[in-house]
Write a structure and sequence with these properties.
9-stranded antiparallel β-sheet, 42 strands, 6 helices, mainly beta, about 600 residues
Length: about 600
């Protein structure tokens, strides 16, 4: 990669000085001296990271318009599940009671006749019947209730008058029925008319004749729960047990004194009103409260990683990303938030689980779209995104499995807040897994890239090395000195292997290529860092280059070198470059060039 230009120039430019040994009969020329002058500029052009990392036809690793590398792959299929809270019916109840009108207390006396007029009102108030009841309902998915809405909730009232009362009282000016104030009343029907209740939850009927019974129906919309109303009525709900209701139906009567026959009152033995109240079975169809129904996502999908680039498949690679993100895009029409549990797994090509990571419990919002972003590191919350931190998340991706999937997903209602629910309605939740993450190396990341620079044999096969006792190496060496300017936020370790004309590695006992230094990393991916580099080709015998055809470079990219780290800096395909500066080539010892041809 980065020193290919140096070695190409070093071996291919006819590096021969003028110190010829003309004593060789076979026209073999011996070349002495050390420094070699290069025939061209000794600085290369910038080499972009994009020129090094070949993405190929992979489906997940991409380059954004600004040049940043990122992972973007999404599951083709949504996971769909349904959730509901069951309807239930509060059974019917029947109540009976008798209300006595003690008209005798108002028999006229001399004093009363002086103080009262015929148009004066006489008023009676008394409880008619207690409406108390209990209903056992051990629902597991309702933890608290504030209100229940009912369908076909009716309280039917029927009043009948005793014969003595009919004789003693010709007309009731006003009958007033007071219902428990915790009941949310819709309307009442009386003699084919629709009547409304006043603000005190009272139904008022005027000008009642006693020749026939008084029958009416009260329609109930719902019942307020937990809070005791001003009149002392209430309905309580206890999770796992059910409901307790307390309240009274009270009656008030207003009559004109002129409507009372006091002679009949004096003879009467029974001045009473008998009442029957029947509460129909109330179908509870809606509720406000806290709910915890559960649902499971039976079909679990995942994202596939296809055509993985070669620089990620070399032995020793470790895709340790600084902050990978697995996003669960969620749509839910459930009116309350939900809590989800599950696991992330990596799978091989046969579908076998390689690695499993349990995901901490997380919640997603009600009624709409949201994202649960599973990350390796904490991040600020943006919009409707929930951050779920899984420090070992990279374990599912570092070895580049065939696919990544969500499994064992179970959701339940989040009862931390109240919500209004339509009971019996099937609500839907949809989820889709995606991986959308910028590429920044973690401390354990290892990216390995190989590149062959070959085709040199025709130029070097006639060069032989002269054995010398004065050289550091027995048959001398050829060295390239340069400075490498690096803008990539990664430490680059260069290993060079000589390659023969068949593309096979040449063993070190024939030719050895030594690279001295690790190329220092740019700290921010913007400002370059310069490293002095030295590459040495060491022949191990006089004819070491006879089959030599080039160099196979293995470049290892790491975010950490010893105690120094540049982890977390985004990789950019175009802005992050390397450049070779001030290239110099030096030979030590003597070589001989065969000029017979």
């Amino acid at each position: 990669m980065l020193c290919a230009t140096a070695l190409s120039v070093m071996l291919l430019t006819g590096c021969i000085d003028t110190d010829y040994d003309l004593g060789d009969i076979d026209m073999t020329v011996g070349v002495g001296g050390e420094n070699i002058n290069l025939p061209s500029d000794n600085t290369t052009q910038d080499i972009c990271l994009n020129d090094v990392l070949d993405l190929g036809q992979n489906n997940f690793l991409k380059v954004a318009q600004d040049g940043n590398y990122y992972i973007d792959v999404i599951d083709d299929n949504e996971f769909v599940a349904h959730m509901w809270v069951n309807r239930f019916t509060v059974p019917n109840r029947k109540y009976e009671g008798t209300y006595k009108i003690n008209l005798g207390d108002f028999a006229p006396t001399t004093n009363m006749m002086k103080s009262r007029k015929a148009d004066d009102d006489i008023e009676f108030n008394a409880p008619m019947v207690d409406l108390d009841f209990e209903y056992n309902y051990a629902a597991k998915d309702i933890t608290a209730l504030e209100y229940i809405g009912v369908d076909e909730g009716k309280l039917s009232i029927s009043l009948s008058f005793s014969n003595d009362l009919k004789k003693a009282l010709s007309n009731i000016k006003e009958m007033r029925f007071s219902f428990p104030q915790c009941i949310d009343c819709e309307k009442a029907e009386y003699k084919g008319q629709t009547l409304s209740l006043n603000d005190a939850n009272q139904l008022v009927i005027n000008n009642v004749t006693l020749t026939s019974d008084v029958d009416f129906v009260l329609y109930i919309k719902g019942i307020n729960i937990s809070k005791t109303a001003a009149d002392g009525s209430y309905m309580n709900f206890t999770k796992g047990q059910g409901f307790t209701f307390h309240g009274q139906l009270n009656i008030g009567v207003v009559v004109k004194e002129s409507a009372v026959d006091f002679d009949e009152v004096a003879k009467a033995k029974d001045l009473s009103v008998s009442g029957v109240a029947e509460l129909s079975g109330m179908k509870v169809t809606s509720a406000k409260g806290k709910f915890t129904p559960t649902r499971e996502f039976g079909k679990v999908g995942g994202v596939a990683l296809r055509n993985i680039p070669s620089f990620l498949t070399e032995e020793g690679c470790n895709l340790d990303l600084y902050d990978p993100q697995l996003n669960v895009d969620i749509y839910s029409d459930v009116p309350f938030a939900n809590i989800m549990t599950g696991a992330i797994v990596s799978k091989d090509k046969k579908g076998n689980v390689i690695t499993r990571i349990d995901v901490p419990e997380f919640s997603y919002k009600a009624n709409g779209k949201s994202v649960a972003s599973v990350r390796r590191r904490k991040a600020s919350v943006a919009g409707d995104t929930t951050i779920v931190v899984v420090p070992n998340l990279c374990d599912v991706i570092r070895d580049l499995p065939d696919s990544i999937a969500l499994i064992d997903l179970v959701g339940r209602g989040d009862d931390s807040q109240s919500a209004s629910v339509e009971l019996g309605k099937v609500y839907e939740g949809r989820m889709r897994l995606s991986v959308a993450s910028g590429i920044a190396l973690g401390n354990d990341a290892v990216v390995i890239y190989k590149k062959d620079y070959t085709g040199w044999n025709d130029e070097v096969k006639d060069i032989s090395f002269v054995e010398s006792k004065d050289s550091t190496y027995r048959f001398g060496s050829i060295k390239a000195f340069c400075e490498v300017e690096n803008k990539i936020p990664a430490y680059l370790t260069l290993r060079a292997t000589p390659v023969d004309v068949r593309g096979k590695d040449i063993s070190n006992d024939q030719v050895e290529v030594i690279v001295k230094s690790v190329i220092a990393a740019s700290k921010d991916g913007v400002n370059p860092v310069t490293t002095k580099e030295e590459i040495t080709i060491v022949p191990k015998n006089s004819n070491a280059l006879k089959n030599f055809d080039g160099i196979r470079f293995t470049i290892t990219m790491k975010a950490k070198n010893g105690s120094s780290s540049v982890a977390g800096v985004r990789l950019n395909a175009y802005k992050q470059t390397i450049k070779v500066l001030n290239l110099k080539v030096q030979k030590n010892g003597k070589i001989a060039v065969d000029l017979n041809d």
